[in-house]
UniProtKB/TrEMBL annotation:
It comes from Ramlibacter ginsenosidimutans. InterPro entries: DUF3606. This is DUF3606 domain-containing protein.
Length: 59
């Protein structure tokens, strides 16, 4: 697999706050509000595992 393909696959696994439908899906999957998701992504970055841990600790 080429380096570009690996980068694209890794990028697809990150939390993106835009478009709105993707933000809503992440909120549904993580069980949080949009404000909580935005705060978590700002604090720990776009990695779903880090965001999940951050949200769990915040509760």
């Amino acid at each position: 697999m080429s380096e570009d393909a690996n980068k694209m696959a890794a990028e697809a696994l990150l939390i993106h706050l835009e478009p709105d439908w993707e933000r809503r899906n992440w909120c549904k999957w993580l069980g949080c509000s949009e404000d909580e998701l935005e705060h978590a992504v700002t604090y720990v970055g776009h990695d779903p595992d880090n965001v999940r841990r951050f949200l769990r600790q915040a509760r």
